[in-house]
Amino acid sequence: MDPGRLPMLLWQRAGTDLLGLRMEETPTNFKGGNPTRGGLRAWMFLLCGVVLIQLFAGQTDAQRSRGPWQTLSGDAPLVIARGGFSGLFPDSSLNAYSFAQLISVAGAALWCDVQLTKDGAGICFPDLKLNNASTIDFVYPNRKKSYLVNGVPTQGWFTIEFSLRELSNVTCKLIRGILSRSEKFDGMYPISTVEDVTTQIKPESFWLNVQHDAFYAQQNLSMSSFLISASRNVSIDYVSSPEVNFFKKIAGGFGPNGPSFVFQFLGKEEFEPTTNRTYGSILSNLTFVKTFASGILVPKSYILPLDDKQYLLPPTSLVKDAHKAGLQVYVSGFANDIDIVHDYSFDPVTEYLSFVDNGNFSVDGVLSDFPITASSSIECFSHLGKNATKQVDFLVVSKNGASGDYPGCTDLAYDKAIKDGADVIDCSVQMSSDGIPFCSRSIDLSNNTMISQTPYAQRSTHVPEISSNGGIYTFSLTWAEIRSLTPAIVNPFRVYNIFRNPKETNSGKLILLSEFLNLAKNSTSLSGVLISPPNFIVSFRMQCMRGLDAIKAVLDTLTETGYSNGITTTKVMIQSTESSVLVDFKKQSKYETVYQVEKIIGDINDFAIQEIKKFANAVVVRKETVLSLFDSFITRQTNVVEKLQKSKLPVYVELFQNEFVSQPYDFFSDPTVEINSYVLGARINGTITEFPFTAARYKRNRCLGEKIPPLYMAPVEPGAFLQVVNALPPDQAPNPVFTDEDVSAYDHYKRCSHPFSCGDQGGLLYPFWIPDREACGSPGFILNCSSGFAEITVSSVKFRILKANYTSRIIRLARPDYIDNLCPSNPLNGPFYQTALQLAGDTNLLTMLYDCQDLSSLIYSSEAYNYFTEFQCKDHKEGANNYCVVINSSSSLFNGRDGIDLLKKNCTKDVSMPVSGFNLHTLHSDNLKKTLQQGFELELKQDCSLCLNSKGACGYNQSLGKFVCYCDDGTHGQNYFEMFLCIKTEVTQLTVFSDFLVSGSVAGVVMFLVILSLFLCFLWKREARRRQQNLKSLIPLRQYTYAQVKRITKSFAEVVGRGGFGIVYRGTLSDGRMVAVKVLKDSKGNGEDFTNEVASMSQTSHLNIVTLLGFCSEGSKRAIIYEFLGNGSP
């Protein structure tokens, strides 16, 4: 067995057995009512815990570091677990104590804050007031009292108000005392007595802290009597207190082998309650402290003070002074999830080392809520020289340099990344307006510089292809202007009031790509560089706007700096989220390519891996792709890394950050634990980090050189902690499987979700497209941008885009030949097929009649004179007249095709086109020109609207020949049963239904699916009806019902012909005319293609084409009615 895997197996046992000591299972939410008893008691954890502790006791003793410690005794500093492992479990719970003993270095002390009950029992509880860390206020809501505590009036539920029996109430449980910690373990554990801890946990070293002896004495309770009595049955190793007189009381009470006494210092300005002296004044007389104690416990600031900006000041001489006085020095206040001073870069290991291994002194012990970090700091990372042997091999890749300490992509960030031990430094390439490539984490300079405070802020522009919001983009400034900007550090956790290195917020300067490459080339420690060129959308935009070719600029700079001709051995890796970008680099160079999978996935199939191997040498995935999370806990480890590595694709994982809020609770707010779990547990090939020092130091971790690493350096077992939470999370849908289609589909999603510009029109999306955006548009909607306008050609007729509003889903087009011109030289006649866009509801059909005989008698003798107007052309012919006629659903000509045909027969040419009807209530010449200028409106079809509303991107699958919806989790709508929705994202139209659902209930899910199906069905049916109504108004034909068709053909009595698409029957209209009725085979479509074709045929006139008289489109029934020729052929 691999020795590195043994600790993981023991972790798993700890998760299922030792951590499974849930005393009582109770509901999570105590605010809604009193907790109730819910589960069975499980006391069998003890046996497993003892076995594991004994198994590792000998091993960890052997592994205790033997470096030259500067402690008073010369031994390694003591790890003291405050309330057990109180950084995760409720303080002083049996689970906290057992886990702390299991996971800490051998000999670690378990800390118990001793409180006394009304009947004199000693309990382990972190405060005098029970309501600070238990459910006491819900169990006994009317027992709140007020007492003077060290002279300060204090209200709460005090321990002295309750007997041990009352506190043993099954509903009185421990909860977290710090609200930022997980609530998942609240309400599971009872309050424990001092005897409970010693008999059940059997600590190797037990530390009792007495915080309020004077208070208990005022209530006629004796803490000293309790301790002396308890010592007969309990092994006590340390006793601490901040009260001088307490030590005088217990002096001599324990005999010669009694516990060590440690005097606890509080704030320097606070008064010690029994001597009325400040702790600061007592500190100046350590020889006095030595008369009653063998050690002191002090806050961290007593040794390493801070300035008002939370930076370290020079250390005090306290440790050396105390050692000189014969006092051991213990330090309190260590917790991974509190604000750590800026000098430590949010790295708790660095903080511990500053107290135990600074080359000047070492404290004798540390009091910590996270004893795993204290243990690893002392045993694994202390006394490591700069040239210590690397124990594990993986790449440490920077993210914008050491961007956790300095503004990203600046000279200082890169210098520190190299100094900190990064193997690879990275550059996100951007382009200036004068074509200079440089490094910047964002194309929008307002994201990482102080440009908003400069005159350049006026250059803010809205580029929809890049962002829906405005920005000050790099290609709007020259390099000289950009170089003058002040960089700014990025604070990703500002919402938590966590800020990075304020002293260096604006330090450093942005650097050229060439400077970055020369810096890397001249470094003796770096093995490579990682370059991320702009994605396709940005590159295309820069090339269109400024003529900037980012890929060429990167390749040219690599050549100029000696990377392409073998001058340097530094490896070059090109990274992109888009396969097309990497393919371009593959074609033009031999550099390694790295494919970045931006979305979180749960698996990857073999076809996708083979597709990736065609253009990439390695893969970057997100942390959640490797270790799945739910509610800030790890649920499982996926097989994505294993699969990719089996195919010889190294896997680099991002993004590693030191701030504790960036990590799930399983990692104990310790970035080193997180790195260890990914490297030793998931076996990744590299970390991409904003704090390279932490990852680089981990590689020299002494404990990894052991045959079997200790438990405090074991990778976390995925899902171990979720097995013991107070309420299991609901089943969740697994993250999607990454398929071969996703390799290109995600490119499509990113590309097609960004609008583009053409001519004078910006913000364009589906169905329009330009070269390299074929997947984003519908066939026939390719745009021509060369004239300065955005124009498409449909059936040889040009249409110009006047407006594209994707918020309202309205597109407005016009025929450019009819803008400012009623009489084009050679107007073409062609229908506008509604394959991707549908005509708006008020659209009418306008027919222009040219070179006509005088039609006034025909027009004014009819009831349709309001729908005609006469106009003049510049080259007016004598005796020729021009007319226009509009047909809509209210026109008396709607069923009068014969009348329209009669008009056309008296004219040389006719042209029909859609127009918006709001200007044509009464048609006359003064609004005809305006009507043609304003064109007509189209609407996005329902499929694309649904896709956009669900945060998807509309597109077209060329191979399938159909509309699809690109989503961040793949392509939807490719199969018949798929909806055109990004199901996993919020659909704004459907949110009303979610209010009716009960979270997590099966009935709620079923109800949602039923309502969703009915709602979509309603939408589609309504849309189909509306389309039919719109089309009716545009086709100057009579539409017959299917029942009428049956009457015309006398129930299909006489067949006159057959064909591949249907049967032709003889029929007779009500006016006696003979007709041929072609009944098409049943169709499963919505009839739109059929009606489009009818619209086209209705506008076609030719001597050799029979006249179309009408049609039927009802459900799946389709029929076309023609004039009947003598030979019976339609």
TrEMBL record:
Membrane-spanning intervals of the chain: 996-1020
Domain GP-PDE, residue spans: 77-378, 394-699
Catalytic activity: a sn-glycero-3-phosphodiester + H2O = an alcohol + sn-glycerol 3-phosphate + H(+); L-threonyl-[protein] + ATP = O-phospho-L-threonyl-[protein] + ADP + H(+); L-seryl-[protein] + ATP = O-phospho-L-seryl-[protein] + ADP + H(+)
SUPFAM superfamilies: PLC-like phosphodiesterases, Protein kinase-like (PK-like)
Pfam families, per the entry: GDPD, GUB_WAK_bind, PK_Tyr_Ser-Thr, WAK_assoc
Keywords on record: ATP-binding, Glycerol metabolism, Glycoprotein, Hydrolase, Membrane, Nucleotide-binding, Signal, Transmembrane, Transmembrane helix
InterPro entries noted in UniProt: GP_PDE_dom (IPR030395), Kinase-like_dom_sf (IPR011009), PLC-like_Pdiesterase_TIM-brl (IPR017946), Prot_kinase_dom (IPR000719), Protein_kinase_ATP_BS (IPR017441), Ser-Thr/Tyr_kinase_cat_dom (IPR001245), WAK_assoc_C (IPR032872), WAK_GUB (IPR025287)
Binding positions for ATP per the UniProt entry: 1078
GO molecular function terms noted in the UniProt entry: ATP binding; glycerophosphodiester phosphodiesterase activity; polysaccharide binding; protein serine/threonine kinase activity
Domain Protein kinase: from-to ranges: 1050-1130
Chief place where the protein resides: membrane
Localization in the cell: Membrane
UniProt membrane topology term: Single-pass type I membrane protein
Any one GO biological process: glycerol metabolic process
Any Gene Ontology CC annotation: membrane
Protein name: Uncharacterized protein
Organism field: Brassica oleracea
